[in-house]
């Protein structure tokens, strides 16, 4: 399968090019950076799980999420711009992301376990998020281009969760609860991911027939 990159504007910005250059000089490999993205995602998930215990955890989860996204950006830049591609690079590029989605999304339900259907909704949202990527890659294996359309592609999911954590921060400071913001986030994630799966399947079938 040829390497197909998600369109990301920040890839062309000076700070990302400088960071990638510095990490290249340090000898970091893209596969290591890809794995670290899941480590940061796990940290974000832990903080989300603990977010009901204080605004500090909400803020820290935002930091970890940004670190995950930076890793997702830099691993590809190291691989392509700095010539560090490997035969297993595509596996390292995609597989950690699937774990990262679950690490970040599922704890939203466990953080509000007292809310009816929260756990079920969290696992549904997490599963559908993984399915969006599975459908994209399955289409590519069948011979179609890789389609990164939304409405709930990875960048959209992370933007929604970032916004949710900011709303949760306000919500917590006002009433010491993060239930409503997390619950509605899971609903939007689930329905948005389902729509994304259907849209990708339709465009893949159209491309193949």
Residue-averaged pLDDT, rounded? 92
CATH topology-level fold name: Four Helix Bundle (Hemerythrin (Met), subunit A)
CATH-derived architecture: Up-down Bundle
Strand content: under 5%
Stretches where pLDDT is under 50 for at least 5 consecutive residues are: none
Our count of domains comes out at 1
Radius of gyration: 18 Å
Distance between the termini: 20 Å
Sheet having the most strands: none
What class, by secondary structure content? mainly alpha
What is the H-and-E element order? Answer: HHHHHHH
Query: In CATH, what is the class?
Result: Mainly Alpha
Number of strands: 0
CATH superfamily: CDP-alcohol phosphotransferase transmembrane (TM) domain
Q: Which bin fits the share of residues in helices? A: over 70%
Shape: globular
What is the tally of helical segments? 7
3D architecture notes:
It is a single chain. The chain is an all-alpha fold. The protein has one domain (10-208): Four Helix Bundle (Hemerythrin (Met), subunit A) (Up-down Bundle). Helix content is 76%, strand content 0%. The protein is globular and about 50 Å long.
